[in-house]
Design brief:
mainly alpha; 3 helices; 82% helix; 0% strand; transmembrane helix; Protein translocase subunit SecE; membrane; Prot_translocase_SecE_dom_sf; transmembrane
Amino acid sequence: MGLYDKVKEFLRDVRWVVSISEKPSSKEFNLVVKFLIFLAFAAGVIQFIFYVANVYMTEYLSGSSIAAYALSQTQEAVAVVSSLVVIFAILIYIVIKLG
């Protein structure tokens, strides 16, 4: 089975789940959106804290501050993926609510 067929089946299943789901009340919607925005904010704060900790630990361990401000490829990938997951979760919920 090709990738196109898998994506097509996945979208078909998502449409089925959305079609049988019950739309949340406005109070529940607002509460969930606030929680998802809080998760996005918390993810950003955690990324910033780890970045600052990385800068100080690199300066402390190596003694130079020139290369201290560069993130490794793994750190950048984790930051980007975690941000995208939270953003997509927010967008998917909003689309389901409005759809």
